[in-house]
Amino acid sequence: MTDDPIEAALARHVGPATAADFTAKVSRYVNYPNLIKGIAKMPAAPDLEAAALALIDDSSMASTLGLDSSPVPGMDPTLARLVAVLRVDTTTLALLTLAARADIEVVDRVAGRLAHLDWSETHLATIRRSAARHRAAGRSATAAPAPQVAQPDAPQRISEVKAWLSTHGDGDLGVLAPYEKQKATARLAAIRALGQIATPQALEVLGQYACESYPDKVLDELHKAWGRFDRRDFAATMFRQAPWRLDLGFASSIEGIGAVSGLTSLKVGFCGPADLSPLAECTGLTTLWAAAQAEPGLLSVAPLLGLTELTELHLNGTTHNADLTQLATLPVRRLELNLDGEDCSFLMELPRLERLLLSGAVPGETTNDVIVALVRKGVQVVVSGNDTEWVTGLRERAEWEAGVFLVAQRWRIGFVNDESELELLERRLFSNILL
């Protein structure tokens, strides 16, 4: 009979032998990254994965697993943080890595309970990716057998597509479907050909290439093709919510994105005017990264105002043509924002703001007053570019302000209102975890 309460709980689901083997495997790892990597390589084990999910979701196990982040009454804050770190058993992350195979959403369910740990975002992102790879490998293993060799009538390079279309454009599009051991150049050529044919039949074949993430060259082809099809049908067919986020690369337009099922997290850069209006339909969106490369840049933030689930927002690049003051009503907790020379006073009005990553502010006392006030309210603020005039002035102001503490790392400066938080903040900045 084991004395380990986690092993004992696991044994009730999968038996003592399996539970002991799993605990022994976990004990061989000395750090979290290697642990997650090693457990992610385990072969499929549906019973063990279901058991891991049951334990992670079992509220009575929360304290044992270190998923109960409630503070100990009267404990010194620095000691409380240390205890919180020690609470998280290595077996917990191992179980979470397996549980995510059974239900990827379990990572989001526990994320809030681990948010007090400076490493949680990095390791949870790794667990999401490993679960996605495992799921993709499972789909590939159960898929119908694909042709073993390249289709002789399909173009094998982009340079062959134009000539191929002139002689085969009205033929059987099945020759453009994916096949086993298809080279990247042939895949790209087929996607371009289907995108230029742009019929409903072509979209059916193109849909066989759909996945949760694409290389940059494939994304470029998809963006070229998007406008040739019905944009909503294309988006619904070709884009999926990935476990971490749907990354669209750089697009000229995201019209039709509202047709993507279950969209909660999106990243997109705009190579033209950044029109966010299609996002008004994406009411389940919780995180958004949007970047505008050049003028006119971001046109408006008004389409985001109805997104009541939006808790994390990143707006970068050219933003000065949008009325950023409208952001004041958003429920975001984490905000990355390039002010692009605009006034930042509206930041004081954000009702739920907890962390802020800021760039492009205007030098002067108004900016300094706002950021100092935010920090005193409990908002963790990180600013980029400590060689710029506005950051230099802010640093000089903060160094003599009572109740404001700062740490510099990797050309960024972080500000908090609790000196005991400085060490954790410094580690976040060093690890490039900015929000």
List keywords for this structure.
single chain; 435 residues; alpha/beta; Leucine-rich repeat, LRR (right-handed beta-alpha superhelix); 3 domains; nine-stranded mixed sheet; flat; LRR_dom_sf; Leucine rich repeat (LRR) protein
Description of the molecule:
With 435 residues, the protein is an alpha/beta fold. The chain folds into 3 domains: 5-139, no CATH class; 151-229, no CATH class; 230-431, Leucine-rich repeat, LRR (right-handed beta-alpha superhelix), CATH 3.80.10. 42% of the residues lie in helices and 11% in strands. The chain has 17 helices and 9 strands. It has helices at residues 5-14, 16-27, 32-40, 46-57, 62-65, 77-87, 90-102, 106-114, 120-142, 161-168, 184-197, 200-206, 216-226, 231-238, 365-376, 389-399, 422-430, and strands at 246-251, 265-270, 287-292, 312-317, 334-338, 355-359, 380-384, 405-409, 412-416. The protein has a 9-stranded mixed beta sheet, sandwiched between helices. Strand 8 (405-409) and strand 9 form a beta hairpin. Helix 3 (32-40) packs parallel to helix 9 and helix 7 (90-102) runs parallel beside helix 9 (120-142). It is flat and about 75 Å long. The relative contact order is 0.05. Residues 77-87 and 144-148 have low confidence and may be disordered.
